[in-house]
Amino acid sequence: MRLTCLLLLLTGVSASAQTWPVLKHYQGQQTYKIAMPIGGIGTGNISVGGNGQWRDVEIMNKPGIGFYGAVTPKQAPCFLIFTQDAKGVKRSKALLGPIPPNEYAGSEGSNTPSHGLPRFSTSSFDAAYPFATVNLQDNDMPVIVKLKTFNPFIPGDADASGIPVAVIRYQVTNTTNGLLDIAIAGSMDNFIGMDGYRAEFSLFNRSVVPLGTNKNRNTFKNTPKLAGIYMTSDSVDKDASTYGTIALTTSNANKDRQISYRTEMDTRGWGSNIADMWNDFTDDGIYQNKTFPDKINDPRGALAVKLKLKPHETKEIEFLLTWNFPNRKDWEDKVTIGNYYSNNYTDAWDVAEKTLPKLPQLERKTLDFVNTLVNSSYPLAVKEAALFNASTLRSQTTFRNKEGYFFGWEGVFNNVGSCYGNCTHVWNYEFASPFLFGDLAKRMREVEYKYALWNDGLMSFRVSLPLKQESNWKGAAADGQMGSIMRVYREWQLSGDDNFLKDTWPGVKKALAFAWINGGWDADKDGVMEGCQHNTMDIEYYGPNPEIEFWYLGALKASAAMASYLKDSEFEKTCNSLFENGSKWTDANLFNGKYYIQKVQPVNSEKDIATGLKIGMGAKDLKNPDFQIGEGCLVDQLAGQNMALVCGLGYLANPDHIKTALKSIIQYNSVKTFGDRFNNMRSYALGNEPGLLITAYPDLSKRPAIPLSYGDEAWTGLEYTAATGLYYQDMDTEALKVISDVRGRYDGYKRNPFNEEECGNHYVRAMASWSAIPAISKFQYSAVDGSFAITSKPGTYFWSNGYAWGSAVVSLKNKTRSVIIKVHHGDIKLNTIALASGSKLPGTGLLTEGQQKSFVFN
């Protein structure tokens, strides 16, 4: 069977008459760095730039930031428009906005994609992920054009949100008083086999030249639903991750539209491939298909759709980009593990055939989700941070193997993944998947407990592929392992899946008990971690510290709750005892009156450290260890506490101390202008940008000579973590400033709003931003007992549990509060409804999709 990838262009009336929401508007310089990924969960994507440029083609199982699906940028995928008025005046341009001035210069002139094509003079960008609109205008053109693009994104439905498709529409308005002929064409090289990863240096100027295409061919196909260019390659290795096909097609539904195409271009002369594409189309908006004796490895295809526009009339031409590249490889790019999405389609044409009839419903559901969130009472910056960072779920950072397990790098570099293996201490901070796609979060927990957990209870914080029991690499992260236990509790509560809990419980007990082994994290079994603790700072802590201790306390409390439910009374008793002792000890010994500190406890030798705990990136002198926090104020000292509050586990230490520590983080870790600070590491905040420093020392004399590894950096994921803690303490002003400061750095001019970096692009930890949603709304839901809690503060709040989602409208009139709960997707068990202030009412049992129920609290 031939496996395929399809670039599908469909004409027709918009699938939905609904107006697309706009959460953020960008114009001018603020569009320069925009690249919004368009693609499904685990499918790869292509990004749309702020000026409408199609860029960062990443559909072949690897990152491709800076790759344009062509050997040279001038051959990048592009769309063109042709117009002709009643007097015969013809005008043509690429459907692109201006080139940013900083991309003008180069050793051979501009190297920006499609740099030689005429463009519209102005453009702006409207976004409410996954919806993007690029507005194009030019006084010399008789039309206004909007590029509208999205991919279905429906929380609770990972399959519908994991379709390898980009919906692309060009909405054209005739601004004249006369009749216009218009045509829109899409054109791209057949780049099968070439993903931008394999390349060579040009002998002429040492520029990087992508490799991989091999006797690729284009064919015109016509089926009852679709017609177009079908791009194939029989010579690319069929086992390669780059093997598939591409097509450019259009729907047969609109008989008033003339379809024309080219399967190849004249390649004689310099740059003739592009010249032939342009000249043939701009003559009359109709392509005349031709063949040529000389064949190249990456022939260019094109498709045009021509129609008439009455004066001031608006019509849309709809495009779909679909693909199917089934041969995803493992972390080391050696063994094929497959793609889950490819199970659902025989090839990319099949993707188009199956998606087309479902598209109206998919769009309506996506719009319902986005509108429900956008119209909620959350601050703009909070909605932007949560929604825009959710795009990481559909970047090359994440994928699903053939069996449907969910995996993720920590992030991605331009051409390769960054830091493999579902890293537990990074995914600790991520809240988008559990609250939007609960099944994916559960599948990740299954990987941790089926394949990363060793028989002795050590959980490898990086899991190997292909999957097998007891991962190839044996190294534990204290925060990641304890956090994983809390995440099991979270996934169980949100799903109500008792079978999941029962299957995972033996592993949870092993993972927790591993802390108590000789030379372990809590070898004396007193509820306090004193041992060698590898962690998300990529070093080891020696001695009790808040960052790890709160994860441990959370794991103990979560384990006690799970043990109680499963009637494992002895283990419940053990966990409760350790929690009580550890919590009291932490307040008595680590809280210094302002925040929680570390008590450094060196070890005599590596013999005192259990196998697998010391990874080797930290201190060499164990008797005087470097990279410790000491008396510093750590920005995420309460990360485990945050998780406990999100999960409904409550406080892990004295609530007054928690609030004081958060106030201290704002007091000591806030930096007004990072450009005034020395930083010998990575810079994520520069110049006059404000933010939160990872580690601050109110008394500089207490700062270690060799301080914490990343202490002078600012990570967005940790800033969001601090903001969430502030929201739980009702310190809304401080919390909003933290989030606004982060999003101010990702303003489209300085950085891409859809790509928060850390160790790589589209970094997982930034999805901590979603935790601000339940923190503000005080949303708590347990599918186990059917309890639903929401804030008593009047407003409209989006809520979700990973399987269902909807809105909760809280109102106050004459001292009487009412709550209207509406389910937009899925169903929830609603046995009790409570306000965060403490009032509680009986529920109604099952509340299904489309239903709503009002509750009045007197």
UniProtKB/TrEMBL annotation:
Pfam families: DUF608, Glyco_hydr_116N. GO terms for molecular function: beta-glucosidase activity. It comes from the Bacteria. One of its GO terms (biological process) is carbohydrate metabolic process. The keyword Repeat does not apply. Residues 1-17 form the signal peptide. The keyword S-adenosyl-L-methionine does not apply. Residues 470-771 form the Glycosyl-hydrolase family 116 catalytic region domain. Residues 35-359 form the Glycosyl-hydrolase family 116 N-terminal domain. Keywords: Signal. InterPro entries: 6-hairpin_glycosidase_sf, 6hp_glycosidase-like_sf, GH116_catalytic, GH116_N, Non-lysos_glucosylceramidase. This is Glycosyl-hydrolase family 116 catalytic region domain-containing protein. The lineage of its organism: Bacteria, Pseudomonadati, Bacteroidota, Sphingobacteriia, Sphingobacteriales.
